[in-house]
Amino acid sequence: MTITQYSPTEVLNLISPEVRAQLIKDVRKDWPELTDDLGERGVDQMAAFLATSTVTDEPLTPSLRVDSLWHKFLNRSVPYLAFSRALGVDYIHHVPDEDEDGTDPEAGRAAIAVTTAALRTAGFTVDAEFWPNEGAADCSQCHAGCTDSPVGGKK
After folding, report:
1. d(CA 109, CA 140)
2. If we measure between CA atoms, which residue out of 56, 51, 83, 86 comes closest to residue 66?
3. What are residue 154's phi and psi, to 5 degrees?
4. Which of 22, 29, 34, 84 makes the best surface tag, with the fewest CB within 10 Å?
């Protein structure tokens, strides 16, 4: 699988150091113990997740940690839109799960496994600190959760 015209390293570099620092600062409001190193790695995982979501028709599901970064990135709409467009899509939509009652841990684990497999297939490194099936302490919010919009966001 190829990520549009960019290699995985180039995808990670699409988010400037200034935007990275702001996202880490934003996330620290909810996750005060987030270190700079963990924050940088988290931005990388979020960028990998978003980039991978643009090249697969299967919905991908972020972990809670990746989703927290994604939410903060969405709030910074100018760099977020530039990132989406650099990947060759108009906008990578965040699609909340409409089934507010249904937290199905087994379905959540399966969705995260699909996502981490897709990240690897796309050439990205999966950081275990950010994915519950890889060892992260936080569970996924899926199902009830959210996904990318693999079809709706493409040009």
Report:
1. 7
2. 51
3. -80, 150
4. 29
Of 66, 63, 49, 70, nearest to 122 by C-alpha is 49
Q: Quickly tell me which residue has 């939410």 as its tokens.
A: 71
**pTM of the full predicted structure?**
0.83
- 38-57 burial: b if 16+ Cβ within 10 Å, else e: bbbbbbbbbbbbbbbbbbbe
- pLDDT, mean over the chain: 84
How far apart CA 107 and CA 92 sit, in angstroms, is 23
**Helices 17-28 and 36-53: crossing angle, nearest 10°?**
110
pLDDT of 100 over the 60 cut: no
Contact present, 47 and 113 (Cβ < 8 Å): no
Q: 51 is written with which tokens?
A: 């980039």
Asked if 63 and 131 touch (Cβ cutoff 8 Å), the reply is: yes
- List the beta bridge partners of residue 3: 6
What the block records as the tokens of 81 is: 């839109």
Quote the strand ranges of the chain, DSSP E.
95-96, 146-147
CA 138 to chain centre: 15
Structure-token pair, residue 24: 């880490």
